[in-house]
Structures are given as C-alpha cells and as structure tokens.
Amino acid sequence: MAPSSAIGALWVAWLVSWIVAARWSNRTAARPPRGSAIGYRVLTTAGAASLVAGGQLAAHGLILWSAPPAVDWLLVGLAVVGLAISWWARLHLGRLWSSSVTRKADHHIVDTGPYALVRHPIYTGIIVAVAATAALQANRLSFVALALFVVGFWIKARLEERFLRAELGAAAYDAYAGRTGMLFPGL
Length: 187
Hints:
mainly alpha, two-stranded antiparallel sheet, 2 strands
C-alpha cells in the first residue's frame, strides 16, 4: 500500500468511527445562539473539501516536492498520532462530547488526561493529522486546507471558551485556562 492510500484509509476509518461514536453523548442542556457556528463550520468544511481535492491533485502528480518513502511513512505515522490524540481526548471527554459547541447535562470542566495539557486536544489532534496529510500531499491546496482548519478550529475554540466560561463559571474556567494552552501546550 502506498503512503497516500494509507493516509486516505486512515481518514476514512477515523471519520466513520467518529460518526458512529456520536451516539455516546449526554443530552444537550444549552447551546450558543443560533448562527454562532456558521464561521467555523464553513471554514472546516472548506478545509475538508480542500484536503480531499489536494489528495486528487497529488494523485495526478501536481506536487511541490517529492519526499523519500521513509519520510512519507513518517508523515502517515504523524497522522496516526494526531488522530489517536483526537480519539484519546474524545474518549476522555466521554458523554460530554458534542460535535458542536454545547453544554451537556452534568457538564463540568474536564482538566485531566489530554485536557491537562491543552483545552482543545481534539482540535489539536486533527490539526496535527491535517498538517501531516498536507505535507504528504505536498501541494498548495492541501496547505490551504491546513490553514482553513487552523482558523476554523481557532474560531470554534474561542466560541466554546466564551460559552463554557459563561455556563460553567468564569473563575473556574479562567483558572483552567491559566494552566493550559488553547490548542498546543504553552500557546
């Protein structure tokens, strides 16, 4: 199997498992005002479409560079690490997880496991996997996809933080935010 096929299969397996696991969450108790999610949803959807299109460009040889096979397999490994981080975070979050910004029944600040390092480890893991995929695909459109994901998840993280600060208490959330980076440790 070629590295490009492996990374494509990895993404498909992750996406299918992510959709199936969506049933494992508590009922929603509150959500931000309607329309507040439009910005990050448009950006991340455009990012996903650009990443898929970038894969097609790479498959047709439209690339900026060609790396040795060992480097390509290292990038596949990095994508595995990123998606594993996202799954570790999702499993650690448990029934409090939601695909959109919400407060679930019995919601509380989770500050253990990957959440002891960063406040949004699911987004971090996905960004790492997208970066590895973009580097493997090696074309401008794939790097546009990476930028769209980074900006989209940054917008979503900021919305989520404002919402959870209001819903769970500013003092408690600010104390947590003071101990952790938003998307990467120390940042």
